[in-house]
Batch of 3 targets.
Target 1
Amino acid sequence: MASEGKISVAFVCLGNICRSPMAEAVFKHTVKEHGLLDRFGKIASFGTARYHVGEPPDERSAATCRNHGVPVDHRAQQIRKSHFDEFDYVVCMDEANLGNLLRLKPEGSKARVELFGEWNTGGKFRKIVDDPYYGGINGFEYNFEQVSYFSEEFLKRELP
């Protein structure tokens, strides 16, 4: 769990090359912009599948982040059972990821497993962060707007 009272957050999608690395990068950037780096331990992202382990993020995802001034530095990795004890929050993008994570989560682990859309205060965006992989750049832009908003709302609601 969180070391020295610091919060640890893992973001999860299927392959860890589009949505979750974007969510990780945006969340880190948002935390830094608010001067809250000292409140957080690990911020990372993972995939439920191992399709892309070791690969950089999808270029469209990385370019969308860069176009908004958000740096991306990531290599795809797969979530493991041990991560449920390393992170306070395991935040996923859709119901399929949620189901997979709940099946993988060891009994008694402390991680809170949630959809990122649970921080969709006021219903401004769709609750599900859809996979933009097979679509155009507009899907990545929409994902960016979603994860930016959800990151802000997470900080408002979860920091004591």
Target 2
Amino acid sequence: MELTLPPKVTERAYSRLHEIGAGESGKALRIAVEGGGCSGFQYDISLDDPAEGDLVLDGPDGVERVVIDEVSLPFLANAVIDFTEELIGARFVIDNPNATSSCGCGTSFSM
């Protein structure tokens, strides 16, 4: 898998990071891909410190950041990281064009 375009982060996702004070605390939203889940791969989304080798995607104000480790990066080429609020809850979501299928909850996918 080659990285054609880095993932894109929506304004809504950066806005949510701002609301929870992630940037002020020095934390970034970490998106990682791990083996597991009901479809073969799963997303691990957490607040974390950026590490050496991470791709850092800065928000419009330069305070909020999203980080992706170099192992996960090829799995997220051209993906869109967003934040959604629905009746069942609010969460960060990933629209990943590389996924050939995903589970109902959206946290697990196959390629």
Target 3
Amino acid sequence: MFLTNCSEYSILAVIPLAVWSIVVNILLYFPNGVNTYAANNQLTNYVWYFQGICFGGILMIILSAVLLLVDFYKCSSTCCAGKQLCHIQCSKLETALFALLGVLFSGYSLIISSLGLSQGPYCRTDTGWRYPFANTGGSYLTDYPSWSQCLEPAKVVEWNIILFSILIALSALQVIICLCKATYDVMVVFCGTHQILAQPDPI
């Protein structure tokens, strides 16, 4: 029952998740609402992979729409003349493949966002513009005093941590939903055709 509900209804949740991914990714281009850093290419390189805008956003919206349309129109019902037997056939192979494609898209967004969080921001320090936390293996996340190394943009460490973390959470939810969808559809494929037996009318 859980897999059925997840497959048939939870795919709708991918759309708002994708919209939020687009919004969050766009915010990464404007630390503290300032647009000059993007114009001067003074942002972390992982914001230019468009993981939230394209892969976790636009492509996931398109994919979700396709999945919903395929689920709605792909089911066909045929009745055999002269027999009290109706076959309702729903091919789930296509939707399973689309769902796995969604796993790849959202997984890409998850990986790139994780790498961006681990690397840390590109910022101006006492020695110039660089990645001061690139070799820390992500340990800077709890080393709050070290954040003061970034002099510009202001509060860029907090900005990146919050937004990349949100992207990671959104992408992870998309991966879970698409995996659930793919799992259910593959189970339907292996179980075969659904059949409904119609009882003859009483004489």
